[in-house]
Amino acid sequence: MSVLFTAVSPDNPVQRQDVEKALVSLGVSLDPEEESDFHTLLAAVHDCAEEIQQLPDYQPTPDRVRYPREDIHRPTKEGQFSGQAWAYRFLIRGTTGAGLLSGKTVCLKDVIAVADVPQLYGTDIFPAWTPTTDATVVTRVLDAGANVVGTTTCENMCHSTSSFTSAQGTVHNPFAVGYSVGGSTSGGAAVVGGGLADIAIGTDQGGSIRIPSAFCGCVGLKPLYGLVPYTGISSGDAIDDHAGPIAKSVLDVALCLDAISGYDGIDDRCLGAPTHGLGTFAATMQAQHGLGGFRIGILTEGFSHPMVEKGVREVVLAAVHKFKSLGATVDEVSIPDHLHGPGLWTIQQRIAGSQNLLGRQHGRRGLYLTELEQHRLPWTAESFRRGFAATKNVVINGQYLVDRFPGLYGKAINLGRRLRDSYQEAFERYDVLVMPTAPMVAPKHGKKCSPIEALKSSMGITINTAGFNVTGHPAMSIPVGLAPSKEEPHLHLPVGMQIVGGLWKEDKVLRAGYSWERAFDWSQEFLE
């Protein structure tokens, strides 16, 4: 506290009315005799802030000599794919040698920092900003021998599970133009689903890796919370932050997880994670044969929700029962609390997400992307007007909930722990739980004509995914068949099955997915 009692600088700009302004939003005021003292104290903390503001930031320094950035550019219309799947194209060559990802090509969701590559964030609320550091996952895939070939479109401020909301343009499903890729890792799923890259690294705060993977016939893993460092990746609610891979096979997902997992000395989410470089997910998975003695639980509530379409339900159920031929036992299990997952996620995401958007992110030890904050703050009437409906909704909802429901965020966190314990109790009897990833196949793109219309196509898509962001359990979507489109029944689109494991049990999730994938051809499994 001593810093606050140093002499106030003579050119300090703080005025007495600034004290009153600081209290206006709270609806409180000071006694007149206190105003002078609090003006002095405010002026002192302003000087302290100025001093800290003038210090150079402390960002990890990328190795541009070892990993030079080549040919950074925004793709032309001719250089695009599936509409606007690419954000920026470039090449960073990975290390040579026998690395885990040697020969693989990797693309990155456009919220993952790559030094010297402008980041669009899917928005036009603020101009593109250019990071000066590389996210930990970027360095790790390069160290593992992969070539990073570009950043891919994300949905507007990552606030949608559709793929028409990015200010840079619509991303089309590689299986059907005019249909959603899912979001918010939309471009990455399209690029991998379309065969233009081996692996995409995305982020998942409610289903943003798993939903696009399900819609695009890809494998997408949301790892255990804190297994993969979030360093250098923009955040919504730090409690829900997960980074992970999308690929065409479970093996590539496992190899990527080995390469990117483990504490990096920065992100406090990962304090309990294993040492980086010691991951053996891929090797362990490949060494196991069959599923003898494996116990699989069909999560009743994940199938019975009224939003789950008949075709999706039938394809996933058929896929689950195929596990029996691999030696597994399959039973139904009911976890009623599963139905509360989306509501708990909504409350914590709206409150914490709105605070983040307003520049009030705090309470974590890690890397803060201060350059991004300087670009997007402060909000103005004009920047808010340009915001996509979902972003405006987060701000409105969050401000309302904070004012009207004191303590609700904390209660949602507490109940999230109860939800976690409900799943953990089931994992004492089952190795994994399974359910549809998304309740439908990819829908047609929504419309931006009004807020309700803009949000309608995303509503309910995360009923089976968001709860596992609340609890942190590892969850993976694998393609298991095709089902008819609701809009065009003659069109068959991919169906994803979500496999969920207990805490720290990625090995079981990967084993189940790998065994199914090796035994069956999902592209031949379809419902007429």
Automatic annotation (TrEMBL):
GO terms for molecular function: catalytic activity. Pfam families: Amidase (PF01425). Residues 98-510 form the Amidase domain. Transmembrane segments: none annotated. InterPro entries: Amidase, Amidase_dom, AS_sf. SUPFAM superfamilies: Amidase signature (AS) enzymes (SSF75304). PANTHER family: AMIDASE (PTHR11895:SF170), TRANSAMIDASE (PTHR11895). This is Amidase domain-containing protein.
